[in-house]
Structures are given as C-alpha cells and as structure tokens.
Specification:
This protein has about 200 residues and is mostly helical. It has 9 helices and no strands. The longest helix has 27 residues.
C-alpha cells in the first residue's frame, strides 16, 4: 500500500510538471491534474492537502537533481573552471532529456509570489547561485580566473545566461541544441575571464 501511495504521489508531481509545461503555471489546477490522472480531486487531496503543498513537492522534485549534480561536481575534484563547465553541461543535458522540467525553472519567479512557496523558491535560486559563486571564487583563488571581477557578477552572468538561453530554447520550440548553445556561451564567458 505504501508503495502505491508513493507511486501515486510521484505521478501527481510529474503530471503537474507536464501541465505547467503545456499550459503554463496559470493552467495548473487540481481539477486538471485529477482529470489527467483519472482520479477525483478528493483522491489528489488525500496525497497533497493543497495545490501549494503539491507545488512544494514539485519544487523538491525539481531541485533534487541540483543536489545530485552539485555533489557529482564536488566529487570529481576537477579545476574550478572545468567544474563550472561540468555543472552547466550536466544540467542542460538533463533539461534536454526532460524538457518539461524547464517549465519549473521558468515559473520560479511567479511561484515566489505565493507566500507558502516563497522560501522554497528563494532557497533553490540562492543555492544554485552560491554553488556557482563558490566555484568562481575557487577559480579566482587558484589563479585560473581574474580576481579583479566580482565573483557575484561572474556567477550572475553564468546563471543568468543559462536561464535566458533556456527561455529562448523553450519559446522557439526547442529548435536548437540547448546544451551546445549554453556550453558555447559559458565557455566564451569563462575564456574571457581566464588568466
């Protein structure tokens, strides 16, 4: 029985992501999720007490890969510039293989206006930023990256470039390689900051 509950909860999360991808955050409703899962809304509310509780589960699902890739980057024990490239490469490869998940990244700003979701959204964005900033600072300390440029600015350029390219990829019907375009941009940026 417990496995059925966990399995159903996972299916509800994935369905919510698919709806956000197809209809936007404004198209997400408990009625639509229940309809697509062929269950009643009452069944959905047995698993998640509210739509916001389900959205918190979606955000947890979205950020779980972050933790895995951050840990993998750390365990690789590679130079900071290579670590940034590995981190971004792994992330965009995941996004290309699971394009619907990028809808969550693009919805983070809207979700942050929900009081119950605000702290979770801030934690995701700030943690991603801090990981990149830390790698940049390591690169500056090792002498691989220019230290006369603020590490916050470099991390903002990296994170912002990734989000913008992903948005362009989504709104243009995914008509280019997200991985190739993002890595080309990040490599250019890193080369311009390398010593």
């Amino acid at each position: 029985m417990k496995n059925d509950i966990l399995h159903r909860k996972d299916r509800l999360i994935i369905t919510a992501i698919e709806i956000i991808d197809e209809l936007g955050i404004q198209g997400l409703s408990t009625r639509e999720i229940a309809k697509r899962q062929d269950v009643s809304e009452a069944t959905l509310f047995r698993h998640y007490k509210s739509k916001n509780e389900l959205l918190i589960a979606v955000l947890n699902y979205f950020s779980q890969f972050d933790e895995d890739i951050f840990l993998s980057t750390k365990l690789k024990n590679i130079k900071p510039v290579e670590a940034v490239i590995f981190l971004i490469s792994s992330s965009v490869e995941y996004y290309e293989n699971y394009p619907a998940i990028t809808s969550i990244m693009q919805a983070l700003d809207v979700l942050s206006y929900e009081t119950e979701l605000n702290e979770k959204v801030k934690a995701i964005i700030n943690h991603r930023f801090q990981v990149v900033k830390s790698l940049v600072e390591d690169g500056q300390k090792s002498g691989d990256l220019r230290s006369d440029v603020d590490s916050d600015s470099i991390a903002e350029l990296i994170c912002g470039s990734c989000r913008e390219i992903c948005l362009l990829w989504r709104i243009n019907g995914r008509n280019f390689s997200l991985k190739d375009k993002t890595l080309s941009t990040i490599r250019t940026l890193m080369a311009s900051l390398s010593i």
